[in-house]
Amino acid sequence: MAGRPQLERHLARQSSSNAGRAAEILILLGQADRKGMALAALAAATGEAKSSVHRTLVALAEYGLVVQNGNRGNYMLGPATYALAHRSLGVNEIVATYRPALIDITGRTQFSTYLMVRSGLDTICLDYQMGQIVAQPYVSGIGGRIPMGVGISGVCILGMMDARSRDRCLDLLEDRLAQWDLTRPQIEAEIAEFQRLGFMRGIRRSAGIESLTLTVPINNDHLRGMETAISLLAPLNVLDAAGERAAIAVMRDAISTAERHASSPTRSDDMSGR
To answer: Which has the closest alpha carbon to 94: 118, 123, 126?
Structure first.
């Protein structure tokens, strides 16, 4: 009996490892193009043995979370993942509420806008509107994800968190930030600036091109635990200080208008009748 607690701890660690591997595979497939990913590519990306990745893929396939294109083809997300996403009322309602704000901001400024939300240690793009004035984005569209702090929206989201949670996230993010030539002191200085101003302004380089990002937090009590923000992406040196202030004012106005519309009785009836 003395060995039972040790066995239980081993099984718990193994279960946690399997769950983590499954989650990583689903995230990788979600970021892949329509061709999906081969077993070898998934093994390389996860750093796991092909046999371990294959066992996880078989288990995921049993539940319809992944599918394989033929006997030796690439793996792709299965229909069950889309069914789960569709039933995620939190995400659907966020998009339904704030898509009008994206459309409004892009229409009034001509810049691309992004609806970003925290997911673990990453920020994910839930929706976006492409503007007439295009800059190089970090994310590849809806579902694109980057570590918090790599993009300016992630700095804003870190600044929205309570101090204890933020410090823990930064502890876990340091190695990933270093891969993007970013340091914790740099991110902490940006967070302090966000907390002073109430919005985030920053410059990042993507694909060798520097761009300006303006990010406004969404302070909605219904989104507690789902820190969310809207970002505007502009080519560097296109906006002067007055232009930046005007863009921030447009963003705040569009967010406020979208929230008022979402809380109106007519909109509430529409949502409940879906």
So the answer is: 126
Q: What's the predicted TM-score (pTM) here? A: 0.70
Domains and CATH numbers, the chain: 4-83 (1.10.10.10), 88-272 (3.30.450.40)
- Listing DSSP states for 86-144 in one string gives HT-HHHHHHHHHHHHHHHHHHHHH-BEEEEEEEETTEEEEEEEE--SB----SS-STT-
Residue whose C-alpha is closest to residue 152's, from 131, 173, 170, 137? 137
pLDDT digits (tens, 9 = 90+) for 1-50: 445 555 444 434 444 577 888 888 888 887 777 788 999 999 998 889 99
CA 199 – CA 268 distance, rounded (Å): 29
Q: What is the pLDDT of residues 99-145, one digit of tens each?
A: 999 999 999 999 999 999 988 888 989 999 999 988 877 777 888 88
